[in-house]
Amino acid sequence: MSTNSPKKTLHMNKNQTEILEYDKNHVWHPYTSMTNPLPSYLVDSAAGVHITLSSGEKLIDGMSSWWSVLHGYNHPELNRALIKQSEKFSHVMFGGLTHQPAVELAQKLVAMTPCGLNKVFLSDSGSVAVEVALKMAIQYWHSKNNTEKHKILTVKNGYHGDTFAAMSVCDPVNGMHQLFEPVLMKNLFAPAPKTAFGATWQQDDCAQLAAMFAKHHHEIAAFIIEPIVQGAGGMRIYHPNYLKTCRALCDQYDVLMIADEIATGLGRTGKLFACEWADISPDIICLGKTLTGGYMTLAATLCTDDVANTISRGEANCFMHGPTFMGNPLACAVANASLNILMRNEWQQQVADIEQALKHMLLPLKSHTRVFDVRVLGAIGVVESKTPVDMAAIQKRFVELGVWIRPFGKLIYIMPPFITDLEQLRQLSAAIKTVLSDDACFQ
Ligand SMILES: *Cc1c(COP(=O)(O)O)cnc(C)c1O
User: Fold this and answer.
1) Which PANTHER family does UniProt cross-reference here (predicted)?
2) Residue 66: is it exposed, middle or buried by C-beta count within 10 angstroms (0-12/13-18/19+)?
3) Which residue, 167, 268, 320, 323, is most buried by CB atoms nearer than 10 A?
4) Domains of the chain in sequence order
């Protein structure tokens, strides 16, 4: 029980230390402690690739605010879309009502995504998009009167979100959710893909996965995987043949395939969708993070006609999910504007240029004594160190160096906005090189 202090009206003046003090004492941040929080930096504004702190530093954003900002902050076209929609209506319930921004977004997504994904379910965040995908898969088999197929097969080192069903398919050990294990769905885990992207394909890489399909297919509703890049579960980039084999195994054993493209979707890996590297289409795809160009929270789960029709003909007569803010018009309007910018097709050149620059600037760090591995694909650059970073120290150092890079564990990685230019990439890479030589930044 909390100790009840009398309610006070908050008169937050603009005093920065006061704001930060209140933040430290009362505001949870992602994966932080309330008793021993890491410092937060107060943001004043952001434009283009820059985040400006209230303390005056102007930082080049190497994180795209967790994969989401594609075209930069404070983009006139995105701002306009948001303002225009807010002057019509900011929200209406999606039960019984519909609107142009949601329908336009659905049209765009059906046209862009790998073929066959024709039905669109809009939701609020990536984790919810994953929950929706898993529910679709389980309801699909239930509608076919198959009550046995209700487990999910996945691979280790995955990350699919922080809600309960999503946690149950994250890596069981390094997936950050081990303590919840007793109450999670008991799902099945194959070893993580071993053959790196660009390496010679190892035929036996899928052997254990194939064995699990063979042994358990009668109880597996769906197989879920992050195509080509395993994000928050280790920033691992694997061979397209692995993904191709996953599709073949799902077909062979009558298991639905869910592609979680929440981090990889919309150009980040050099293809519009990472599934395209293996030339496959999943039965269900999850999109999030990048969907609104980093403006608002919005996610989508798309599925095939077969999945949607089977669910709809089943005992329940409908799909059993419906969030309050489903299809939020502001989020849909800004998503449409962001996709319009993307479809002008500058992203292909932008991402190719970023990849070339990151390869040139980061791959030489492989020989650094502190570095275990360096990986680059599309607009993603990963430097894996041999020992974990000291978060508070390295974060402070990066800010001093004029960049916003937020590592986790042994992973110092960047996925900058697509508009980042060569000089800015040089500054991001130089900052990484500098911290590698700073003992205080590592445990
Ligand atoms: C970030 C992420 C999620 C979760 O999305 P949230 O919006 O944080 O709920 C799920 N899957 C993948 C692959 C992600 O990168």
Assistant:
1) ADENOSYLMETHIONINE-8-AMINO-7-OXONONANOATE AMINOTRANSFERASE
2) middle
3) 268
4) 14-74+346-441 (3.90.1150.10), 77-343 (3.40.640.10)
Q: Residue 260 catalytic?
A: yes
Structural tokens at position 272? 């519009």
Structure tokens at 164: 């309960």
154 lines ligand 1 (CB under 6 A): no
d(C-alpha 327, C-alpha 319), whole Å: 16
Does residue 159's CB lie within 6 angstroms of at least one atom of ligand 1?
yes
Ligand 1 atom at shortest distance from the alpha carbon of 126:
5
Residue 176's pLDDT is what? 74
Q: Under DSSP, is residue 97 helix (H, G, I), strand (E, B) or coil?
A: coil
User: Of 73, 159, 238, 295, which residue is the catalytic one?
Assistant: 159
Instruction: Find the farthest-apart pair of alpha carbons in the chain and give their distance in angstroms, rounded.
Output: 66
Name the helix (H) or strand (E) containing 385: strand 380-385
> If you average pLDDT over residues 17-32, what whole number do you get?
94
C-alpha distances out from residue 228 to 27, 136, 280, Å: 35, 23, 12
Question: How does DSSP assign 326-371, residue by residue?
Answer: TT-HHHHHHHHHHHHHIIIIIHHHHHHHHHHHHHHHHGGGGGSTTE
Residue nearest to ligand 1 atom 10, measured at CA = 160
156 CB under 6 A from ligand 1? no
CA angle 150–151–154, rounded 5-degree value: 145
State mean pLDDT over 196-218. Answer: 97
Would residue 266 be called left, alpha or beta, if left means φ above 0 and alpha means ψ between -120 and 50 degrees?
Answer: left
Per residue in 166-189, pLDDT (tens digit) is 999 999 987 678 889 899 999 999
